[in-house]
Amino acid sequence: MQQSGLKWMLDLRKKWLAFSYLNLFFVAVALGLIVAATLTILFQKSYLIGFIIGFLPVLALLFFYSKSIKIQLMDLAVFINQRFPEVEDSTQLVLQAPENLNFLQRLQVEKLNHIIPQLNQPKEPLKKLRIGFIILVCGLIASFAIQKLPIVQQHQTEDEQAVKQISSIKDVIPPEIKSVDVEIIAPAYTQLSTVHQKQFSIKVVAGTRVSWLVNTNKSAKAIKFIFNEKEVISLKPKNDEHTEWNTAKVITRSGFYQVETDGRKSDLYLIEVIEDQLVSIKIIKPEQQTVIDFGQPQKVSLNVLLSDDFGISSAEINATIASGKGESVSFKQIKLSFNQTVSGKEANLSKVFNLKALGMNAGDELYFFVKAKDNHGQESRSDIYIVSIADTTALMSMNGMLGGVNLVPEYFRSQRQIIMDTENLLKEQSSISADEFKSRSNNLGIDQKLLRLRYGKFLGEESETNIGEAPDEEAHHDDDHDQGKQKEEQKFGDATAIMDEYSHKHDNAEDATFFEPEQKAKLKATLTEMWNSELRLRTYKPTEALPYEYKALRLLKDLQQSSRAYVAKTTIKTTPLKLEKRLTGELDKIVEPVSNQQRKKSDIKNKILKAAIAVLEESKQGNVLAFAEQKTLSNSRVYVVQAATQNPSIYLKSLQLLNSLTEGNTLSKSQLSSIQHVVQLLITDDDKLPQAGNTNSGSSLGKAYFQNLKSKQ
Question: Which of 166, 430, 531, 602 is deepest in the core (most CB within 10 A)?
């Protein structure tokens, strides 16, 4: 019987160890997958090698430090004593030899041998296994997510980009050429690895060095590359049998080329060049024009997103501080750096302008732009952004507000008066009682409310549109309502009648058309600042109200000045007239003005291309082309070659079909139509010749109005 309890504990230990080993294995696999995905992305290692590098060290560390795989029978006895009260803290007696036990201990062991086998197996090992399985699933998801990130995918495909972009093009290799190996070495600034391909058509970055190794089936006398039907490069033999030929060239522009082997020319092969783009600069914040009003912190946050196709090398901020006014204005240029280092293809940069640290005062302006340089040395810059500090002294002055168009002249001084009264209240706060301070602050809030309501009239508002308006205000409101009619008795539960009592339907602030939409938006912003000022004055916080008062005044001045038309002062110097020529009335030297224009001579090109379209249409009917028609196609081919040199991706296929047609081959109707489409693209618009204008009247309404005037004469 003694062995039954011990056997149960041995089985529990085996189960515990098995689940613990499996749990550690799951954790090691999860971490190994994450490490493998990371190493594969960063160092271009194989996934299996990365997994081994991450899995084995993690598994060794877990086995070395984990306590769950080092559990002994005595540890299980302590665990059983704590978990099951019925064993009476005596499980360790089962592990001792019978001869070492006294009479009472042997009786307890016999009791335990009956109790222990009937105990439920603990669930702790299974719980640990579940945790390990969850970690394994999370590792799989994390590994998959790392490889699917957009930046990671871009990094993975960076070196294979040129091959993938060209793999869809199927070249027709001449039968005398056994194979071709094209080595593409991109410029160093692109950080692209060397690429090898087995076809002639290429798509490379500008400045790429391309090397060709051509193997022929038999000995060849000469092999040449003809670029854009102008430049000819002869290949050099590498062996005595003249079956291996090579050459190299730096590709700088798009076009096409063909291979000439012992006088036999191949098809046209595409050369497409990818130009290095400038760094894209996108300023997220601030706005292009930012005004720091009174009371606002004199700090501006700059957030910039930079992106480039091959990499960014540097970025900086060029700033200019303008101080003073009029002829005494001075400029100070500074260069600022970002808080982060610039590297890679994308960068999210930030900078906080501390205007005080830059030495700016009220009325000064900061002009800045961001300049970035890519790995190729190309520079790009953003638009100019302006940050200005509002000058409260200039706002409080009446300069510029006494002349010109004055929309609401009597109200501007009221806002200035509210500001001055608020500042006086703050100065006298320590010398007056709290009740008087609150009373004066509340009175200023009332003045601000009246001013806001007056400005609201320019937006179509007839009364305060705030919650809590007194019902009797509506009864005494001076408007177009018929106040003489007796009010009908309201029916109990009539929702419409109740809403009519508290609503003001005959006018809507959004329907006001006194201002232009831009002016209306500024006036709405002014009313908002006035409301914020009123709120703080009514709650006895004039210090917080002052910034809103200044901003409202600034918006009012901007609103007034925006309606002005500024005309620059100009002078003119006329040629002095001779006194004897004045008032003589001789007009023989005065002639009508004549405008001479040189028209572009594109008629010949258009004539040839249009004739080629007609010949292609005849060829669609199955007619055999005469010598003159073939000559027309040959003449039009010159313009197609020029277009294919500039844009081979569009015109090269049609040029190949046109070459086949001029050689006497038969093309399908769809192929002829594609040639026609390309030729049609090359036809330029004819210059418009002078012609008589249209003397007809503009509309029937104008005619009727004119006839009505004639009939009344």
Answer: 166
- Classified as helix, coil or strand, 57 is helix
Give the DSSP letter string of 375-422.
TT--EEE---EEEEE--HHHHHS-TTSSSS--SSHHHHHHHHHHHHHH
Cβ atoms of 284 and 302 within 8 Å: the answer is no
- Total domain count for the chain? 5
Q: How far is CA 68 from CA 21, 71, 232, 436, in A?
A: 8, 6, 77, 77
- Which of 189, 585, 200, 212 is closest to 376 using CA atoms? 189
Distance CA 60, CA 621 (A): 80
**CATH number of the domain enclosing 552:** 1.20.120
C-beta of residue 230 within 8 angstroms of C-beta of residue 272: no
Reported as a single tens digit per residue, the pLDDT across 294-303 is: 778 888 999 9
For residue 46 the two structure tokens come to 């194989």
669 sits in which H/E element:
helix 669-682
Same domain, yes or no: 121 and 260: no
| Residue 218, domain CATH | 2.60.40.10
Determine the structural domain holding residue 13 and report its residue range: 2-151
Is 386 found in the same domain as 304?
yes
Could you give the CA distance from residue 471 to residue 644 in angstroms, rounded to a whole number? 80
Q: 261, 216 in Cβ contact below 8 A?
A: yes
| pLDDT, tens digit, 9 for 90 and up, residues 103-129 | 776 676 777 776 777 677 777 777 777
Asked if 414 and 398 count as a contact pair (C-beta separation under 8 A), the reply is: no
Burial of 385 (0-12, 13-18, 19+ CB in 10 A): buried
Residues 377 and 429 in one domain: no
- 433 is a domain residue: yes
Residue 694 has pLDDT above 60, yes or no: no
> Same domain, yes or no, for 221 and 328?
no
CA 218 – CA 223 distance, rounded (Å)? 12
Answer yes or no: do 346 and 285 share one domain.
yes
- Asked if 303 and 422 sit in the same domain, the reply is no
The residue among 306 and 92 whose pLDDT is bigger is 306
Q: Coil, helix or strand for 612?
A: helix
Run of H or E residues at 520: helix 517-538
In this structure, what token pair is assigned to residue 77?
Answer: 């006895």
Q: What is the CA radius of gyration of the chain?
A: 45
pTM: 0.55
User: Contact, 72 vs 82, CB < 8 A?
Assistant: no
Angle of the 517-538 helix axis to the 434-456 helix axis, nearest 10: 160
Give the CATH number for residue 331. 2.60.40.640
pLDDT of residue 224: 92
CA distance 501 to 344: 67
Q: What percent of the chain is predicted at pLDDT more than 70?
A: 76
- Average per-residue pLDDT for the chain: 77
Domain for residue 630, yes or no? yes
Last residue of a domain, one of 342, 371, 390: 390
For CA atoms 555, 557, 563, 565, give the dihedral sign. negative
Rounded-to-integer distance, Cα 184 and Cα 162, Å = 9
pLDDT at residue number 159: 44
- Residue 551, C-beta contacts closer than 8 angstroms, at least 6 positions apart: 293, 294, 390, 529
235 and 120 both lie in a single domain: no
CA distance 401 to 404: 8
pLDDT at 487: 44
CB 16 within 8 Å of CB 77: no
The phi, psi pair for 563, rounded to 5°, reads: -90, 0
Residue 706 counted as domain residue = no
| Residues 129, 311: Cα–Cα separation, whole Å | 46
Q: Residue 485: CA atoms inside 13 Å, Cβ hemisphere, count?
A: 6
Does residue 289 sit in the same domain as residue 255?
A: no
Given this model, what pLDDT does residue 283 score? 93
**Within-domain flag for 340:** yes
Q: CA-to-CA distance for 392 and 387, rounded, in angstroms?
A: 16
Closest CA to 422 of 536, 512, 342: 536
Report d(CA 192, CA 188) in Å as an integer: 7
